[in-house]
Amino acid sequence: MQTAPSSPVGVSERHTTVPAPSTLQPDPNGRAHLIVAAPGGRPVADLVAALHGPVEVLVGCDDEPGELEAALRERLAQASVGLRLYVAGSEGLVRRVTRLALEAGMERDEIHTEVTASAARPVWCTHCKAITPDVSTTLVRCDGCGRTLEVYHHFSRRHGAYMGFQADAELPGDLPEAQTRWP
Amino acid sequence: MAVTTLAVRVAEARALAPDVRELVLEPVDGTPLPPFSPGSHVVVHVPGERPRKNAYSLACAPWSTDRYRIAVRRLDAGRGGSVGVHARVAPGDVLAIEPPRNLFAPVARATRHVLVAGGIGITPFVSYAHQLRAEGVAFELHYAFREPGGGPLLDELEALCPDAVHAYADPTGQTLLAALDDVLSRRPLGTHLSVCGPAPMMDAVVALAGDLGWPASRIHLERFSVEAGPTAPFEVQLAGDGRRLSVGEDESLLEALEAAGLDVPYLCRQGICGECRTGVVDGTPDHRDMFLTPEERASDAWVMPCVSRCAGAGPLVLDLP
Amino acid sequence: MPATALSVPSGNSPEAIARFPFPFEADTYMYATNVEEAERPHPNGVATWGEHVYDIDEHYRFEIAERARVLAADPARCQVMPHMRLAAWDVVEDATTRLARDFPAHFSLERRGTERRWVNRLLELEQVYVVEDDGSLPMEPFEWITRQLQEDVELLDQRGDDLYFDAGILTFGADWSLDFDLGMHFLEIHGPVPRVHEMGVIPRAFQFLQRLTPGVAYRRTNWTMTVGRRLDTCTEVYPEWGPDRASLRYEEIGERLHLRVEVQHFVRLPRSNAVMFPIHTYLASLDEICTIPAWAQRLERVLGSLPQDLVDYKGLTRYRDMAVDWLAERNATRTEDPR
To answer: How many Å lie between the alpha carbon of B203 and the closest alpha carbon of chain C?
Structure first.
């Protein structure tokens, strides 16, 4: 997307790719429910109580994110249409899990999310394609190529990440002040 | 704008059932017919005292370029198009048809398809079956029909894809629903459901799917007809030049406008797709479509001329030149 | 293979300038859905453009080579999701058929049932293949045909009431990334564009695309500016072309600053029901624009009156004022010295 060296241009709320904030509500149309929650995060007992049909809860472990993803893939491979997925946790967890669920054949109206913890988000570098996780500032050093990236207001569900591109491409070294926007 | 038509000759015509007639159509000049996407239909210009334009699914392989096949169920309570196909079209006749268009294509991303057909609703799934089989995509076709001996096109579908076809002689519709209760409870993520048939059957299948947790994004429908209801003549006025038209009891508002030389855009001609939406300046429409929202209907600012009429004798004043 | 762009070709011949798709019909510019029927000549005040969906012009060999260079460096510029296979073959059939009909001196297509024999004389390429048989082509079909086109081509999968960007090639894009946007639906891709939503342009464009049926192609134009005669201005290589924006000097404007126009076509594909957007990018330097006085004057007025948010969105911020001054000076000189 074409950008200004100054602040981002106005964006339509209805059509922006940036995910709107949402809170988890029990989905009355689901026949079975799978909840993915962050450890020590939002309590899900009230959600579980409000759901009709079988409910399973998977709790992520910060030290072993791979295990959660493997468990989730296995559940989704066995699941039937009628399942609803609820994800509560950091922005990073929510976007990663959503991406995985879409790849496994879930539809967007079967997935409900709530960012309950850090809003720090994954940023995809347009130049080297690496994803730098847990970015809370408007500028970030890319984990892949070392460029300073501007975190742009454009989000991809497929990558589960926000777009980043070199912030000082036009005048190398000319960088605005980085702000903490997504703590 | 005027739609281009293709000239086709009726190569064959035969009865597939007492009320279902098959027509095989070949290009008049030998030019290949356009290939199409599964689920496509063609609008056939049915000749007669009052010409009709009716949409029929192409019930043949989507790569057919030498001939098209349609299967038409006779609706005596309709406006005469299907009766015309049965009574007034014979082999050797030349018909005008519009090029294929599609309001019911299969979801390309689906990894499995559950296809449910009721009666003549089988026709769009013939092209689906050819395509999905050729691509090796998993699918199952559940076909319910009233006759104990089998429905139209069943034999050839069973020959084409024997493992995929499940046939139900089902006068009440309950056998199909009982089977689907099981099927729709046990399908993997990535499966999509497509349904075509009479309105009550479709409504029951959609309700069942909803109860079993299928979200709207996985359910795809092609509705073949909207309940017709009684028709009475009424007056129309065009807001542009003030011209008055009469709409007879056996023609639609759209047909009357076309007969008067107006080019109203259309696609399905069945009250479903929204293409013919026309502004209403005065008068009260009698809404019979499935496109307008309740608010739009209540506002009396719009009408779908392909199926809707006027409440009373009119004049219904339309925002047309 | 050099990592950076090949040395630039010579600019446009006078014939090419005459056929340039000058995009401004008025002295001010605002977004509009501005769609019209395709495959008919569009007068630009000098000659016409727009007779064909796929345009083969004097830059063909250069742009084909440039596309190949970009793809070698970054294969992710061309992606086809598996379910778009049928749409890919629709593009092969559509492009080969149109090119053989529109440019018979350069291309020929023989058909026998599902067999095809394709000849591209410009690239000295001959290929026999079977439609919808992937194995009969030397590479993935969409890539095979688009490597022979100057157009970027984007494919939208019709899924119920929505259109998803699930395949495409983008080697000559104007500051966006195919790899990032792949998989988004139509309304989302245009999310970051200012104003288009309030004005209803995007929803109307979307309704228009929903109603497309196979058979009639439509088109519209889009425009921006590029410093340097550079086709690949995708976001991936922003570090390569970004500095040019900041380094442009007044005396270089005529030669280095280019008006960049996209002619976009919209075609509903028959076998897949997908919507295809071929996009042909044309560049003309301001010196070349100035060979047509009416264009130079109009461009000055359009640039001068462009609202700041559009200036910023189109990436013109650093040099808009300078460009307007430069055009004003050239246009004033012309007025003082009529010939």
So the answer is: 18
